[in-house]
Amino acid sequence: GSEMCIRDSSHPVSQLLSVQRGVLKVVVERSAWVVPPHFAVWVPAGTVHTSRATARCEFQATFFSERESFLRPREAYGVTVTPLLHELLERLAAEGISQMQRRNIERVLFDNLDPASHDLRVRMPRDHRISPIADALRAEPGNRTSLEEWASSLEVSSKTLARIFQNETGVSFHSWRQMVRVQSALEQLSNGSSVALVARSLGYAQTSTFIDAFRRVLDVTPGHYRARALTA
Question: Residue 188 and residue 22: Cα distance in Å, rounded?
């Protein structure tokens, strides 16, 4: 799909990137997110990030006043946009609110800015021994090459590869690959692809296996997510 790229930037104040429809891809330092509707990413002041919006994406960047920005988390994280959070973001976007009102709304907002229970991030490894694997999977999430097969083609033991994956990304190779697939699924479903088609593109022999994997990560079925994303 056509994408609009917003180049690398860093801002002197923190911001929250929230999505109303479509999906936004956000890379903050070494973490990559695919942000679907009703989710957001907190981007701390001074962190370099890149955003890419898919064609139908509607998103909002909310910037926070200087003092609030610096008292807040220094780490990027995913956020679920609850109805309350949505209302507060609307208030902050309203015309003509005073500095005092803004600070008060920001405080309430921060009290409710909890990390999402499902953080849809993929940490990008730096180690050159596994970057070919990471690059291949990001380019083609349905790639079914096993860690053993990678090990023999890269001439490194699979035990070593497994250890590097865990150290560099915080999760096992299988979990990492699963998250890359879920991110790709979010994107494809938001663009209207059918659940069966997405399952096939991601290398699942059975649609039901894909549905289970998706539900494990997101707590909703891909069909439910797709319906919500397309009416969002």
Answer: 10
CA distance 42 to 62: 10
Q: Hey, which residues does 3 pair with through a beta bridge?
A: 54
Query: What kind and span of H or E run contains 226?
Result: helix 222-231
- pLDDT tens track for 95-148: 999 999 999 999 999 999 888 877 789 999 999 999 999 999 999 999 999 999
C-alpha R_g of the chain: 19
The SS3 assignment for 63 reads strand
| C-alpha 232: how far from chain center | 18
Alpha carbon distance 48, 74 (integer Å): 12
Angle at alpha carbon of residue 168, lines to 165 and 174, rounded to 5°: 30
d(CA 184, CA 206): 17
Distance CA 126, CA 107 (A): 37
